[in-house]
Amino acid sequence: MDSLSGKWLYEEDYSYGKAKGELILKQIGKRLIGKIIFLENIDTSNSVMVQEFLEGEINGSRILLQATEYDIVHSEETIFYELDCWRGVLLDEYTIEGESLDSQGVYGSFSFHKVQKTTSMYNLE
After folding, report:
1. What b-and-e string marks burial along 64-73, b requiring 16 or more CB atoms within 10 Å of the CB?
2. Distance spanning both ends of the chain, measured CA to CA
3. Residue 73's domain is classified under what CATH number?
4. Shortest CA distance to 69 belongs to which of 57, 56, 82, 53?
5. Which residues pair with 18 in a beta bridge?
6. What is the pLDDT of residues 33-66, one digit of tens each?
7. Is 85 a residue whose pLDDT tops 90?
8. Measuring CA to CA, which of 1, 17, 24, 38 is 20 to 30 A from 75?
9. Residue pair 12/110 in contact by the 8 Å Cβ criterion
10. Quick check: 84 and 70 in contact, CB under 8 A?
11. Per-residue model confidence as pLDDT tens digits over 106-123
């Protein structure tokens, strides 16, 4: 299996709205560290941009990521944000799907899709 290190596109549906963004992961053995930045579109208010710092692990095909701290990148109102936890399954080397849960008990379903490296047609080696 290739390393999970790299950039992943993130999408999530949960009871209050949708989130979309990017996950940057680094894999060290079974340990995962990284950050996720996303725009959350909440049904009842304006959009909020959040960045969360993550720690986790991979065990077989199971992935666990837990937010350890957050920053509100943009919000039109003052908010308190609940840290998220993502539990998923590595379906193939480019896809992780699973469920999220925040510390308020809000569930969601998410997917991470790894951004594949592309070779430039202007490779000047």
Report:
1. bbbbeebeee
2. 28
3. 2.40.128.120
4. 53
5. 13, 41
6. 999 999 988 766 678 899 999 999 999 999 999 9
7. yes
8. 24
9. yes
10. no
11. 899 999 999 987 655 555
What SS3 class is residue 125?
Answer: coil
Query: Both tokens of residue 66?
Result: 């837990």
Task: At 11, list the tokens.
Answer: 């999408």
How far does CA 9 lie from the centroid of its chain? 8
Instruction: For residue 54, give the nearest of 67, 45, 39 by alpha carbon.
Output: 67
In single-letter form, the type of residue at position 5 comes to S
Tokens of 109: 């379903």
Per-residue CA distances from 73 to 21, 40, 109, 124 (Å) = 13, 11, 23, 38
The range of the structural domain enclosing residue 102 comes to 6-114
Contact 104, 82 (CB under 8 A): yes
- Token reading at 16: 């209050």
If one compares 6 and 1, the residue with the highest pLDDT of the two is 6
Tell me the torsion sign for CA atoms 52, 91, 109, 105: negative
Would residue 62 count as lying in a domain?
yes
Q: Look at residue 119 and tell me if it is in a domain.
A: no
**Domains contained in the chain, number:** 1
